[in-house]
Specification:
This protein is of the alpha/beta class and 545 residues long. It is 30% helix and 15% strand. It contains 17 helices and 16 strands. Helix 11 crosses helix 12.
């Protein structure tokens, strides 16, 4: 099936999807839809929207779920969208949220008026109670990306789900803090909750079940899902969660990507964020304590070009805790059991770190044992010798691949396993690892001689969504894996358990038998395995700093 090409704004690496389509008959329209077959109309709680019909599914794009966060609403929690008269065209997505260019210089792209979402729903009759609803949060380091990049037809048509993709404020506009803002919640996360409230009010109008909502996301979207899982203000907004490569406990050691970089944790304290915000405001000519209406009034008067810069985005790209939305650091909240009691699927990719290292090896190469040992000392100090003994260069084709294994295991695989254990003590938990080392390479990644990307960060996305933005199409074996993964994800959305007749059994995660489902092509590619043993997690339990 081929899909008509509508204008699309595409993010950076997160740009992982294109879609199928043609025209359907009037009988195939979703519940609540009226109008011509190719232009179905749905009445939302704010007004009528006119979507587009394709081969087996309908799309409604660019629907506002909150008021434009501009002017006096900049750095305020999302406010209700204004109702509209007549029929609003929903045939293409709204603009992406403002973000700096991914590569090179230039002005930011997108718009501050970006709080829109997109709905994809299967055609034909659904269950009496409605279809399960899957709400997708895009990745991009809380800096880049947009919901419309992800085209979820496979999940909708094959899996019988209503899928909603969401925009949320990014960078300086979504994760800024300042003393005058006091304990304001992370605005980007508050946007996500506003979108979930919209889904609860409108899902049935698109044939969905508002009482059966699954929140899922990748990378920063996975971290966002983790944040909502531990957020008191998200109570009742979703009933299941899927975290892809973004557990609450993700953490990098110092120098993981570039020698000299500090250790990284994805969440920051409110106090630290306020201090950073005051310093940034002063640099922008809006200091505290001066005459006039205050620093925030001054900052709200600045153009977006002065705020959405690579320098400021590099500082304001982590959600803060210590506020009503996130009272506690998410990793600590998870460990203490302070999270919503909903079933969870969670996983990472076998070679997560190779994607990130691919961007840095040109300038910071790992050529020999000397470079490798320097990296080990920089990141692990006195434990460097023990790490080298556990990951000897002789076990890997190159020093770069050895370092990728060290950092994948330390920062991703074993922190995800730790989070699995915390979750499994209280809720049904299903762990996975995407392990197709022949997965298509995403466009935009540099070719690094002798450094195959394998199953790197984000490489599972073309298996769940439909993508033209990979360097190779999926093979027949990979398409079979894509169908298997779509079936698992949507079955989980239906029931809270990914298992279904005819599929390899996916065991629930047990702390005493920590099995994850390996997801790779081939007859034996989908099967449980001991993820901790595969990634040296007993070693990291002893040596984590």
């Amino acid at each position: 099936m081929q899909r008509a090409r509508f204008p699309r704004r595409r993010g950076a690496l997160a740009a992982v999807l294109l879609a199928l389509s043609s025209t359907v008959t009037a009988a195939a329209a979703a519940p609540g839809a009226t109008g011509a077959p190719e232009h179905p109309v749905v009445a939302t709680d704010h007004g009528l929207v006119r979507g587009r019909a394709h081969d087996g599914f309908l799309t409604y794009e660019g629907i506002p779920f909150a008021a434009p966060p501009t002017g006096g609403l900049r750095w305020r929690p999302p406010q209700p969208a204004r109702p509209w008269r007549g029929v609003r065209e929903a045939g293409e997505p709204g603009p992406q949220c403002l973000q700096p260019p991914v590569l090179g210089g230039g002005p930011p792209t997108g718009s501050e008026d970006c709080l829109h979402l997109n709905v994809t729903t299967p055609t034909g009759p659904g269950p009496v109670r409605g279809r399960p609803v899957m709400v997708w949060l895009h990745g991009g380091g809380f800096t880049f990306g947009t919901g419309s990049t992800y085209h979820p037809e496979r999940l909708a048509v094959r899996g019988g789900a209503v899928v909603v993709t969401v925009n949320y404020r990014l960078g300086m506009l979504g994760f800024f803090g300042h003393p005058e803002l006091k304990n304001a919640p992370p605005f980007g996360l508050a946007d996500q909750q506003a979108a979930l409230r919209w889904v609860r009010a409108n899902a049935a109008r698109f044939g969905g079940d508002p009482d059966n909502v699954t929140l899922f996301g990748v990378s920063a979207g996975g971290l966002s899902t983790c944040a909502q899982l531990v957020s008191p203000t998200a109570a009742g907004l979703f009933g299941k969660a899927v975290l892809q490569s973004g557990s609450c406990m993700t953490a990098y050691p110092p120098g993981a990507l570039i020698p000299g970089l500090p250790a990284y944790r994805p969440f920051v304290s409110q106090r630290s964020l306020r201090d950073e915000g005051a310093a940034a405001a002063a640099r922008l000519g809006c200091p505290q304590g001066g005459a006039g209406a205050g620093a925030l009034h001054c900052l709200r008067g600045l153009s977006a070009d002065k705020l959405v810069t690579p320098e400021l985005t590099a500082v304001f790209n982590r959600p803060a805790y210590g506020n009503p939305l996130l009272p506690t650091e998410p990793a600590r909240a998870l460990e203490a059991g302070r999270f919503h009691r909903v079933p969870v699927m969670q996983g990472a990719n076998r070679d997560e770190m190779r994607m990130f290292l691919g961007f840095t090896l040109g300038q910071y190469p790992l050529r020999d044992a000397r470079d490798y040992r320097a990296r080990l000392r920089n990141s692990f100090g006195g434990a460097a010798g023990a790490v080298e003994a556990e990951y000897p260069l002789s076990a890997y084709p190159t020093p770069a691949l050895a370092w990728a294994a060290v950092t994948t295991d330390n920062a991703w695989a074993c922190t995800t396993l730790h989070a699995d254990r915390a979750l499994a003590r209280r809720v049904p938990t299903y762990a996975y690892e995407f392990a197709d080392r022949t997965a298509p390479v995403l466009e935009g990644l540099p070719d690094v001689p002798g450094f195959p990307y394998g199953a790197a960060h984000g490489f599972e996305l073309p298996y769940l969504f439909v993508s033209p933005l990979t360097k190779q199409p999926l093979t027949d074996r990979q398409r079979a894996l894509a169908n298997r993964m779509a079936d698992y994800w949507t079955r989980f959305a239906h029931t809270g358990d990914p298992n279904h007749p005819g599929a390899p059994v996916w065991p629930v995660f047990r702390t005493r038998t920590p099995l994850a489902q390996s997801l790779a092509p081939g007859r034996h590619g989908v099967a449980p395995f001991d993820v901790g043993q595969a990634h040296h997690c007993s070693f990291w339990d002893r040596h984590r700093g």
